[in-house]
Amino acid sequence: MSWTKEKEAAYQKIYREVNKEKLATKKEVYYKKNKEKIKAYQKSNKKKIVDHGRVYREANKKKIAIRKKFYRETNKEKIFTYMDIYRKTNKEKLVVYQKTYYEINKEKRTTYNKNYYEFNKEKLVVYQEAYREANKKKIKAYHKANKGKISAYMKNKRRINPKFKLSQIVSNSIRKSLKNSKNGYHWENLVSYTLDDLIKHLKKTLPPGYTWDDYINGKTDLQIDHKILIAVHNFKSYTDTDFQRCWALKNLQLLPALKNMSKGAKLIKPFQPSLLL
């Protein structure tokens, strides 16, 4: 029986598996004995080594992916411990690296994040909802400890983004009006309907299984949703056409938070924003 390359490869694989520890020790001893020699070789053959590695990775993508996955699965605790220690001892280095990497790859990362969100929308919404539910105290403590920072961020966003500022004013005012069941809030002067009109309309949009009283008392996850998103409307002032279209009764409905968030930036039908004059 002839000795083929395939048989040799199979034999070598079995031998490595059986003698794993022995070979690792041998390799370590050899490296310690020939440290300087190995370093000198690597230095003088840098390009050759890099090129060889690139060719190997290109030709063995699947094989490498399987090997990496297997290693991660069988060494979870070891990897976690190593990464935890590394992060703690290299905080400043990591901050600089992440900042530099983000600046160099800004457009690439933005495109990747956008695509990832679009393909994993439902999964992310479920995860975020579960995280908020499981970490209420932690989130509350963070907001309390970073009140000034968050306030400064929101103040700056309102300053540079008129649409955000106006939408927030109306949204917060509507929430207060509904909760207190009182007319006469400033937002009523900005739109073409009253609080009574709004309540009557929203009650018609209540999803099955929800009650108006529970919504008003904050016992549900219902949110006021814009059928055509605020983001696609083009306005800076309440006098702009798109502001009226955005906050029109026919564009508002009550939706469970999970369903509302899972909509993302998806438009159900074509929409043409108005031009700002």
Describe the structure.
With 277 residues, the chain is mainly alpha-helical. It is 69% helix and 4% strand. It contains 16 helices and two strands. It has a two-stranded antiparallel sheet with strand order 1-2. Helix 11 crosses helix 12. The mean pLDDT is 84.
Strand content: under 5%
Helix content: 55-70%
Give the spatial strand order of the biggest sheet.
Answer: 1-2
Biggest pleated sheet: 2 strands, antiparallel
Q: Show unreliable segments.
A: none
Shape: elongated
Query: What is the mean predicted local confidence, pLDDT?
Result: 84
- CA radius of gyration is 30 Å
Number of strands: 2
Number of helices: 16
Oligomer: single chain
Straight-line distance between termini: 88 Å
Task: Encode the helix/strand succession as letters.
Answer: HHHHHHHHHHHHHHEHEH
**What class do helices, strands and sheet pairing give?**
mainly alpha
Summarize the structure.
Helix content is 69%, strand content 4%. It is mainly alpha-helical and 277 residues long. It is elongated.
What keyword list fits this structure?
mainly alpha, 2 strands, elongated, 277 residues, 69% helix
Q: Which SSEs are present, and which pair or pack?
A:
Layout: H1 5-18, H2 20-33, H3 35-44, H4 46-59, H5 61-74, H6 76-89, H7 91-104, H8 106-119, H9 121-134, H10 136-145, H11 147-160, H12 162-180, H13 195-204, H14 212-216, E1 222-226, H15 241-246, E2 252-256, H16 257-262
Antiparallel strand pairs: 1-2
Helix pairs in contact: 11-12
